[in-house]
Amino acid sequence: MSLLLASMMLVIGAGKVYAQGSVSSTSLQVSADGSDYYIIGSDFYNHFVRPTTVDLAKNKVVYNKQILTVYNGRIDKWKMSFLNQDSSGKSWFKFLSYPEATKGDIKVTYTTDGINYSDSKPSLEQLKGYMVELLKPIVYPDDANNQENDIEVSFQLSPDTDYILSNSNLNKQFIPFSGEYWLQNYSPYPFFTDRNQLQFVYPDYSKGVMVKYVDEEGNEIHDPQTISGSKGDVYDASTDQYKLVLDGYTLNTSKLPQNSIGNFKEALQKVTYVYSKNPVVAADVTVRYVDIENNPISEDIILQGNIGENYYTDKKILKIIL
Known about the structure:
Keywords: Repeat, Signal. The chain is an all-beta fold. It has 3 domains: about 10-200, Immunoglobulin-like; about 210-275, Roll (Ubiquitin-like (UB roll)), CATH 3.10.20.320; about 280-320, no CATH class.
């Protein structure tokens, strides 16, 4: 199932809870458009498929809504923690907005470390998660069948695409979040289980094309450029935007890359331009021939050449006529 179709769903931690005569359901729901919500593993036609799939090419914003629904009976105490990280501490999403109470008598507190919670809102970059706690009992007749949400906490997340790709986490099934919930006076329960798995996909993902600039010895002489695109699309690194004029160097046209034009692939491709260093005239070298008293005994020889080139001198055999 794709997270982003016409509309989409994700309900995490959903299930009925029975406690002291009450029946309730708690879950975290996610929607691609902020309207329709479905149980995890379902597409918008409600066909049961697992895991829920997040398409990184389409899904830039994920609308989240944590809910508690009490069907009947009474709940006096309830709270739940949500951490935007998996069990190993990795965060695959970024907060785009603060979790806010949109329905019910509840209190929301925030955490930057998953341990300490505060009323103060940290920056969204520092926000790790939140805790929601019931402030007022929820009471229904024992024979009621309430279907309306009693509590709602809403916020938005965005997949951290760069982090996902750099950690090679495409097409892998895993649980992206962690947290616990407490009902009445019972011990905490894990909010997320193996049935709450998710996977990221990027159907046309390409690592792009890197355009490199080297000298005749293969040493890099300019920062590389990157061309981005989707797998199968055409790239063109033969234009002046990528075929650079570099000060002090001349492009070696006999070594032009054969793959300057091509199609993006999933793997990173490299296009390499080779440059020859331009000759720079060096100062002359004067070769002198003198006796032990530094008197000239032969004409000087002037050697000329370019910086970096080797030069050689010859000794002379001189005949001295007395």
